[in-house]
Amino acid sequence: MARESQRQEEEERLEREADVAQVLVRFPNGERKGRRFESNTLYDCVDSFGVLETEEYSLITNFPRTVYRRDKESMSLKDAGLHPQASVFIEIH
């Protein structure tokens, strides 16, 4: 019974990790912060760092160059193609 319980716990952990994305954010001041996020939206990830004093910014990936403006703020990391790993930089408006 204990083995079955361990196996089930391991399966559940792997399922949770499948929804986790590693995101590195480069801020306008040059600072970089990285963190693992679960199924968050694009802007929730950046806002969770509490570094920016404005909400007027876009998130940009280098390759392929993609700009995510506020009209995409409710898009999930997975839907934005930033799962399982991404690097974005911030452009202040």
TrEMBL record:
Keywords: Ubl conjugation pathway. It comes from the Eukaryota. PANTHER family: FAS-ASSOCIATED FACTOR 2 (PTHR23322:SF1), FAS-ASSOCIATED PROTEIN (PTHR23322). Pfam families: UBX. InterPro entries: Ubiquitin-like_domsf, UBX_dom, UBX_domain-protein. This is UBX domain-containing protein. SUPFAM superfamilies: Ubiquitin-like (SSF54236). Residues 16-90 form the UBX domain.
